User: Fold this.
Amino acid sequence: MNTEQTQNVIELLNLKMYFPITRGLLRRRIGEIKAVDDISFAIRKNETLGLVGESGCGKTTTGRCILRLYKPTAGKILFNGTNISTMKEDQIRPLRSHMGAIFQDPYGSLNPRQTARRIVGMPLIIHGKADRRDFNDRVAELFQLVGLDPSMMDRVPHEFSGGQRQRLGIARALACQPTLIICDEPVSALDVSIQAQIINLLEELQEKLELTYLFIAHDLSVVQHISNRVAVMYLGRIIEITNSRELYANPLHPYTKALLSAIPVPNPVIERKRTRIVLKGEVPSPADPPAGCHFHPRCKLATPECREAKPPLRDIGNGHEVACLRA
Assistant:
């Protein structure tokens, strides 16, 4: 097998990101929010890893740690084999040109006072990737790459539709020719018809530019179409990870089964035969997560052992990993 094809662009090793809870004028620390609690996974070159889970489970925090917008509490982040988790700001800045980010809200992520030309070209200026002579040509190329007319470069964001604004965000992410792009729910704020266009665009760009994606989402039907592998996250931990086809055909963790049961099927005959799994209770607070398996208070299969022992992420076979003692 070609080692170039199996090279890991990003690898997380026992990553933790805890935020302090403080009180009083002296900001005395009284606890911590365990947003990301000891996770490990890798993303290979030209691969798309989907990261799914309920709101507040730590998906976005994981992406921001990879971009080093947050300095991790513990663990390692290897970017192309280099440990970036402990780097200082002046060391990490040159590496950021090899990373890109597409944000959830195409309305809030663009500066309303700047022209599209400056929004898309700003990374070129910050990282010194273009001079004044070829700046406009480079921005025009980026517009064409994402399906926008370069004649629109002098418009401001409110003159674009929602789908066009997200294309601007994609063009900005591609400006410095990154190898890794963090897609933080890039289609959740768009109409369904526009979602399909953006997903198709991301797939075309990945094939053309040899990009690697971490695709963060809570909509499993969207993740199914774009991801090679899918990791399911619950309360700061990865509970299941495998290739996309295997996860949707043979989910092993009770939480994954519940998530998949919530996806509507556009066939009334099949839909009537399906059993909807309704989870009891609420998601526990990350400031005070349950002992043992975090999911045990809501799990029908939980045993006394589940309340005490943290289940390791173990390989069941064919690269299908699950953190469940009953799997």
Residues 109-177 form one domain. Residues 1-6 have pLDDT under 50 and may be disordered. The chain has two domains: 3-98+178-322, 109-177. The longest helix spans residues 192-209.
